[in-house]
Structure formats: C-alpha cells, structure tokens
From TrEMBL:
TM ranges: none
Keyword Secreted attached: no
Organism lineage string: Bacteria, Pseudomonadati, Pseudomonadota, Betaproteobacteria, Burkholderiales
Domain of life, per lineage: Bacteria
PANTHER family reported in the protein's UniProt record: BLR1237 PROTEIN, TRICARBOXYLATE-BINDING PROTEIN
Keyword Signal applies: yes
Name recorded for this polypeptide: ABC transporter substrate-binding protein
Organism encoding this protein: Rhodoferax saidenbachensis
C-alpha cells in the first residue's frame, strides 16, 4: 500500500467514525422533543364553548403525560377560519398544535372562496379525542314534548317557527339541516338563524326569539336542568346517562338519524414522524386516563381515541357525509 493510499484509508476511517458518532447525535436531535419550550394548542373559537372546554381538558392531561407546559390559545373569528389558517402556516415543530371540532371538515365545503388552507393536506392529524351527541331542545312555550309533535307543529305553521344554530357549518347547523331533510321540512322555508356562538343562540332560544336548537350538552344541559329549555331528544345512538329520560331522535321515529360533534387535535403538515408518534402516544394515554374520561362524561362527551391514520380516514368519511347534507339542504353562504 502506497503512502497516499494509507492516508486516504486513514481519512476514510476517520470519516466513518465521525459519521457513526454523529448519527446518534442527529437522531437524538430529531427526537429530542419536547424541550423546555411551551406547547401551544390553538383553538379557533372563543373561550367557554364546547371546543374550548374539551381542548382545555386535553391540554391539562397532555401536560401531565409530557411533563411539559401545554397552553390553550383562543383565536376566534370567521367560523374558525382565522385560527385554523394560522396553524396551517406554522412551523411543524410540535410546539404549535391545533384543536377543533367537526367544523374543521365542514367549513371548507361551505367557505370555498374564503378558505386559505386544505383541511387534509395542510395538517397532520394526531388523534381524535372525543365525540358528543347534541341535545335537541325547544323553548318551553313551544307546545311540543316530542320530536314528532314538533315536526307536526312546524309543518302546520312553517312561517311561525325557526331553528337556531351556534354558527354556520357547526355540528348543530348540519344536525338541524339533516333532521329537516329527513322530517320533510327542508322545503318549507323554515328559517335557520345563524349566531356567533352558543351563548347568544341559547339566550334567544330561552327568550323565545327562536324556537328550537341542536347543541352540545356542555352548553345546553345547564339550561335544560334549570328548566329554561325543554329537551325533546338527543342525537346519539343511545341515551346519555345525563338525560336518561330523554329519547334519541332514532327512538322518536327517525331510524336513520344519528349525529355527533367530534373533536380532535392536529399539527401543521410535515410534522416529523418521531414527534408525531410522541404526540400520538401522549394523546392516547391522556384520552384513556380516568381523569379525562370522567371530566368529559360530566360534560356530556365520550372519550374516544382514534390514532393518526384512523382519524384521517374518519375525517374523509365525515367530509363526504357533510357534503351530502349540504347538497341536499342547499346550504350556501348568502
């Protein structure tokens, strides 16, 4: 072996050794998450609503699982489009996350010209964490104690009654639209009044300015328990233990009707796989923990975990369902 060959061999050995030394370091850097930097969960809705309530419950459990500060940042506006677009543009470093409900899948179908993001391509789904049936309630002055009685009443006097919803494209909006279609009310011209949040919608429902509404347990149950509203049905497949005497819409004679709001957590697209797996695992442990399940059950939700892959499939299937409801009900932005 010549001297030059010996030098090249020696250098190649040094390079190989350096590569072997650097590989674990690079891998460690890639998986060294989280650091001391706080994790922020952006909620594109105002504080106090159903989405915010579930998000804060999850943040508390994630903080315990990751031993890291996890904070909720409410960024409401434009039915959630503003906060959602902010996360879509954020760095995929695992420190900016996004929490939303089923409106994540519905909004792009409704706000086509205004949406600045793709709900599938611009996000990394981490996991679904909960679902909840809606309470179908009426103002106590409405002379209807069942869904069928309300249906008959509205059919006989379509100009006299209106439905409230907490927002355009919300679960309550699409739930009412689906019900109206199945009840033969879609072509009656019954107003669906759109509010900016559950609080003003419930206030007008209690006051009698509107007459019926589908809304999550979190915001409607206290009004029902307080006698300010009358629950005539709930939209899940089975009765909730929180309202054991209130039948489901299915029991009321609409055998194909079942509607849930669902909640999940995402990160921006291209989240590194090690970070995704760490977040997915922490989310699963959080959702399956007794404190999380107990807290959600008390708010009228079920803790339901779907991993990243299954959640993505679920979003796609729900999007197709919402598209059908929107087309059948001819829901458009005015």
């Amino acid at each position: 072996m010549t001297s030059i060959h010996r030098r090249l061999f020696a250098l190649s050995g040094v390079s190989l050794a350096a590569g072997l030394l650097l590989a674990p370091v690079a891998h460690a850097a890639e998986t060294a998450w989280p650091t001391a930097k706080p994790i922020t969960i952006v909620v594109p809705h105002a504080a106090g609503g159903a989405v915010d309530g579930v998000a804060r419950t999850l943040a508390e459990r994630l903080s315990a699982e990751l031993k890291q500060s996890v904070v909720v940042d409410n960024r409401p506006g434009a039915s959630g489009l503003i906060g959602t677009a902010t996360v879509a543009r954020a760095d995929p470093d695992g420190y900016t996350l996004y929490f939303n409900a089923s409106i994540h899948a519905a909004a792009p179908l409704l706000y086509k010209s205004q949406v600045k993001f793709d709900p599938i391509k611009d996000f990394t789904p981490i996991g679904m964490v909960a679902q909840g049936a809606l309470i179908f309630s009426v103002n106590p002055q409405v002379p209807a104690n069942t869904v069928q009685e309300l249906t008959n009443l509205v059919k006989a006097n379509p100009s006299k009654y209106s439905f409230a919803t907490s927002g355009f494209g919300s679960a309550g909006h699409l739930g009412i639209a689906q019900f109206a279609a199945e009840a033969g009310l879609a072509d009656k011209g019954i107003p669906i009044v759109l509010y900016k949040g559950a609080a003003p919608a419930l206030q007008d429902l209690i006051g009698g300015q509107v007459h019926a509404m589908m809304d999550p347990f979190l915001s409607s149950l206290p009004q029902v328990k307080g006698g300010k509203l009358r629950a005539i049905a709930q939209t899940g497949s089975t009765r909730s233990p929180l309202l054991p005497d209130v039948p489901t819409v299915k029991e009321a004679g609409f055998k194909d009707f079942e509607f849930y709001s669902w909640y999940g957590i995402w990160a921006p697209a291209k989240l590194p796989r090690p970070v995704l797996k760490a977040l997915e695992s922490a989310t699963e442990q959080a959702v399956k923990s007794e404190p999380f399940k107990s807290k959600l059950n008390g708010l009228g939700f079920d803790a339901v975990f779907r991993n990243s892959v299954d959640f993505n499939k679920y979003i796609i299937s729900e999007t197709a369902k919402y598209q059908t409801i929107i087309e059948k009900s001819n829901i458009t932005i005015e």
